[in-house]
Specification:
Elements (H helix, E strand, L loop, with lengths): L22 H17 L1 H24 L6 H7 L4 H17 L5 H10 L5 H27 L5
Amino acid sequence: MSTDEAAPAYVPPPAIKINEIGFDDIRAALRAGWRDFTRAPLIGLFFGAIYVTGGILILLLLSVYHQPWWIIPIAVGFPLIGPFVAVGLYEVSRRLAAGQPIVWGEVLSVIWAQRSRQIGWMAFVVLFIFWMWLYEVRMLLAIFLGFKSF
């Protein structure tokens, strides 16, 4: 049994338009970030303190356990927590733009609420990349320093 009807022709989706970013865009983003920081400085300092506290803990713990060779590799990977901290900062910016009050509990609850979205997978990917980075560092230490460093 044959039909004379042809299958509909495939229509490709329209091409994605990629906008160019210039120095003016970067300046505008930095100005907007500074404006948000000056309007809610305690929130910005809180999220900055997460980085400072994390860095100090890395230094102290690895020094206490006499493994200083891990300080630099772990410090290099530590900024990978940026996407998780950014969720809170984005919520602050969103609330300021909407004219809503900045309430600590609500900002932190938005971070917690992201666990049901892609933030869980993001955590998995970031942790995997960090684990591979540390494995590579350990391999390079073993190759170049032998077992003296372990």
